[in-house]
Prior knowledge:
By secondary structure, the protein is mostly beta strands. The protein has one helix and four strands; from the N terminus they run H-E-E-E-E. It has one helix spanning 2-9; strands spanning 16-29, 39-52, 55-66, 72-84. A four-stranded antiparallel sheet has the order 1-4-3-2, covered by helices on one side. The longest helix is centred in the first third of the chain and has 8 residues, at 2-9. The radius of gyration is 14 Å and the shape is elongated. It starts with a helix and ends with a strand.
Amino acid sequence: MLSYFSESYNLLIEGIYMGVNKGFDKVRFVAPVRVGSKIRCHATVQEIIEKRPGQYDFKVEVSVEIEGGDKPALVAEWLSVQMAS
């Protein structure tokens, strides 16, 4: 579901020609999501670092909340790279 949610908040560097999912850090599954539950995702950009000219590393904190729940279902740091010309 995180890939689906990322379309609504994804940041794109101007001139991007490729993006790579590097994976996750600090992944925690806090609460189960029951069938039929409504969920939403919150994302906060933690850092964007230009490693080399045109290569940007992203760290985004994501949390998936369950409607009516007191705990999130998931909390993680999502790492990715974007290459721009």
